[in-house]
Amino acid sequence: MGSFSSAGGHGVSAATIDAGTGALTLTGATDAVADPSFLALRPDAAVLYAVSETDEGAVAAFDVTGPEPRLIGAPEPVRGSAPTHLAYTTGHVVAAHYGSGSVSAQPVRPDGTPGPVTALVRHQGSGPDPDRQGAPHAHQVLPAPDGRRLLTVDLGTDSVRVCALDAATGALTVQGETALRPGSGPRHLAFHPDGRHVYVLAELTPTLTVCRWDGRTGALEPVAEAPVRPAGAAGPGYPSALAVSPCGRFVWAAVRGDDTIAVLQLDGSGERPRLVAAVPSGGRWPRDLVADPQARRLYVANERSGDVTWFDVDPATGIPSRAGAVAAPAASCVVLA
Asked: Nearest Cα to 4, choosing from 29, 26, 31, 28?
């Protein structure tokens, strides 16, 4: 679990999961890195990578084979400010920097630590919201299912860029950019299990955009949009994160302000999501959520109430019901090993 240490968080925390109930039991934490707000595991689950969401910006590696995360080496600068997301792919760590509107790539050394930046792509453009979109704000970078390309989501430019990462040199090349609805402020995306559809969650207009994805050409095509707040919902709502069920029938989205988990059902095509429920998130300001591999449970990081809440999921409807919570001050991210 990641958190904002500047707001009282414990840094990177670890917990075990009870296989029968889904309950979390904390086992250890480290505050060796400032504001480790987003985390990503190496595929072997032995090394965890964290951004340091600070003005200077860095990526750090942790050994997570024991009960307490242990920093490996020194954090490596990302040459961008306020990194908010990162991913591991083809021997590299890639990170999205909200503050500077850029994306970096860093090779991973044999001991698991990230090396110096080998590529830095600076986004260009702006959006119609003068307060939030005066400049690029890269918010997420995610590998495509086949690992050949990366998709970078930019809240400031209302677009998703498709990049190629050269595994041998660490070079990043922008291959295309897909414009989304002006002023929508895309924040995060996730792939459907079929690998042919992408769902983009917008923060400024609380919607989910369905896109077709061509893995052969790297083309991303928006085809539909659906709300993630019920009609007539009062006050502002700011979607933050989403997850798609492994069966491809449901999408869950966390919505801050409303402090809910939106439940959307998908039809057989994957292109017509329908909002069917909005369930309380179990706390305040849900910043992240993740489903277990069988989608039996959801885990939600509620930043402002300082907890991670877990939910049992109805397999027929996809609707979650609260099952428990553990204290996690300033919680911002949850990953499952």
From this structure: 31
- 255-269 pLDDT tens trace: 999 999 999 999 999
Q: What is the dihedral of CA 330, 127, 223, 234, to 10 degrees?
A: 50
Give the three-class secondary structure for 5. helix
Residue with tokens 């119609």: 128
Name the token pair of 59.
């990526």
* Tens-digit pLDDT profile for residues 189-226: 999 999 999 999 999 999 999 999 999 999 999 999 99
d(CA 137, CA 303): 21
* Residue where the block lists tokens 């990503």: 40
What is the rounded distance in angstroms from the CA atom of residue 118 to the CA atom of residue 287?
A: 30
Whether 97 contacts 138, CB under 8 Å? yes
* Total-model pTM: 0.97
| Structure tokens belonging to residue 199 | 């769902």
Please tell me whether residue 18 adopts helix, strand or coil conformation: coil
Sequence-ordered list of residues with C-beta below 8 angstroms from that of 134, at least 6 positions apart, any chain? 126, 156
